[in-house]
Amino acid sequence: MSAAVTAREAGFVACTRCTRVWPMGTERCGRCGKPLVSRDTHSLSRVWAWWVAGLMCYFPANLYPMLRTQVLFTVSEDTIVGGAIELALHGAPFVALIILVASVAIPIGKFAAIAWLAISVRRGSVATPHARHRLYEIVEYIGRWSMIDVFVVAILTALVQLNLAASIKPGPAALAFALSVIFTMLSAQSFDPRLIWDRADDDNDTGDRA
């Protein structure tokens, strides 16, 4: 049985934005205008740079107040987790669960998934390339909805009965959280999933030679 021929071996290169295939040597995609490269040699460097930046912003996003509320002379501040607890205590456990999943569980999962994919490209993995590529697609899909976490501020405002003597302002965590979301999205988009299959081909070649 003849071995499968990759697009790269056949002299083609695919656009990573719109997936259109072009002859090797074409500089830009004729459909979307994105520069075409067979492999992004600096992909992992950008992945780790954005990943570290996102992680650095994620800690203050959870430690500092997301919302600062002032009613007359009383000032209250709520972190993401603290706001979720308040919502649960006020009879909205489902909304509190959504906040915890969207603002804590999913970001941590994205950090772990991106790091694992980048490491697996360098060191290999027992997981199949199909499984790793599927994980990458999941991370990319979730990234489209990541900015919904910023609306945690709007959800926390529902805890306050607004009147003329009340004022609500976003806390320092709001900016940190938004930056963390943006940086993790850039980290995921910087990853070149074609490297997963290159590593698999290298492992197969090593096994054949052995």
Q: Could you explain how this protein is built, in words?
A:
α2 runs antiparallel to α3 and α3 crosses α4 (129-143). The chain has helices at residues 43-63, 80-89, 93-123, 129-143, 152-157, 172-190, 194-209, and strands at 12-14, 21-23, 67-71, 74-78, 166-170. A hairpin with a 2-residue loop joins β3 (67-71) and β4. It has 210 residues and is mainly alpha-helical. It contains 7 helices and 5 strands. The chain is elongated and about 70 Å long. 56% of the residues lie in helices and 10% in strands.
Give the arrangement of secondary structure elements.
Blueprint: E1 12-14, E2 21-23, H1 43-63, E3 67-71, E4 74-78, H2 80-89, H3 93-123, H4 129-143, H5 152-157, E5 166-170, H6 172-190, H7 194-209
Antiparallel strand pairs: 1-2, 3-4, 3-5
Helix pairs in contact: 1-3, 1-6, 2-3, 3-4, 3-6, 3-7, 4-6
